[in-house]
Every structure is written in structure tokens, then in C-alpha cells.
Design brief:
This protein folds into 2 domains: 47 residues; 95 residues, Spore Coat Polysaccharide Biosynthesis Protein SpsA, Chain A (Alpha-Beta Complex), CATH 3.90.550. It has 155 residues and is mainly alpha-helical. It contains 5 helices and 4 strands, in the order αββββαααα. Strands 1-4 form a two-stranded antiparallel sheet. It has a two-stranded antiparallel ribbon with strand order 2-3. β2 and β3 form a beta hairpin.
């Protein structure tokens, strides 16, 4: 059976609809492919030590952000981050060392940002250990949602 394109219905309705359908589908596939390519290229560009290589939940990870030292309301200097680490929890210490480090006045304990700072102040040595396994610190409702997503992926 041969299509008769000479009829007005075929020439002005059916064929334009078929052409529109083909064009829309080609454009939709192209949009999907371009989105995939864009994400792959951006992921490749952003490969670096830091949150997307070590993991945002690593116990210790290299500092990936640029760190600025402030002087009032202006930047005084850019800090060399090659020796900086971001400390995550948990931090583990020998019980006797931690008890001794906690034997300071209340103001010193409250000023400490973590137990490692107290150990350092007491003359102790804090070792660095790079870990890539997820270790999310849950302190807010948003953290809890992230934890639920991570647990859902493992199930």
C-alpha cells in the first residue's frame, strides 16, 4: 500500500505531524545526551583531593577550599592549604590521655573546638589517618536526611 501525499489531509496534516514528532524526539534525545556529556565533563574537571575524592564524611580529609586569613573586613592573606586537614568525628584517643586533657577549667573546655585541641594543649600528639569511608556527623535535621539516604543506598 502506497501513501497518497497528494490529498490535502496527508499534505497539510499527517506529514507535518510526522515531521514534528521526529524533530521533537531527536531534540529530546540530544538534550539528554548533552546533559550527560556536560555532567561527565564537569565531574572530570572537578576531580581533585577533597570532598569528591576523599569524601565529605571522611574522618580526615585534605582541605579542598581556598582558605583566607581575615583582617577586619578584608582578606589579609591566602593560607597555604597543602598541610591543612579538615578533622571529622569520631576522634579516638587513649582513655588516660583524654581524661588528663579534660582536667582543665571549664572555660578552656568550652573554648576547645574538639577533643584533639585539648590533647594538643596537654602536650599530646594527634596522629592523622586518612579515611574514605562515609562517616557523617548527624547534628541537624538536614544531616539526618543525608544519613537516611546513605543508609538507603547500602540496604
Amino acid at each position: 500500500m502506497r501513501l497518497d501525499v497528494s490529498t490535502p489531509l496527508m499534505a497539510y496534516v499527517v506529514l507535518p505531524l510526522i515531521k514534528a514528532f521526529v524533530i521533537i524526539n531527536v531534540m529530546a534525545v540530544m538534550a539528554g545526551v548533552l546533559t550527560l556529556v556536560e555532567r561527565r565533563v564537569l565531574a572530570w574537571i572537578q576531580i581533585r583531593k577533597g570532598p569528591n575524592r576523599v569524601g565529605p564524611q571522611g574522618i580526615l580529609q585534605w582541605v579542598a577550599d581556598t582558605i583566607k586569613r581575615a583582617d577586619g573586613g578584608t582578606v589579609a592573606a591566602t593560607v597555604d592549604r597543602s598541610t591543612l586537614w579538615a578533622a571529622q568525628t569520631p576522634q579516638v584517643f587513649r582513655t588516660e590521655a583524654l581524661r588528663a586533657a579534660l582536667q582543665v577549667d571549664r572555660a578552656a573546655r568550652e573554648a576547645a573546638t574538639d577533643e584533639a585541641m585539648l590533647i594538643e594543649a596537654a602536650g599530646g600528639t594527634v596522629l592523622l589517618h586518612e579515611v574514605t569511608e562515609p562517616n557523617l556527623k548527624v547534628t541537624t535535621g538536614a544531616d539526618l536526611k543525608v544519613a537516611e539516604l546513605l543508609l538507603g543506598e547500602r540496604a
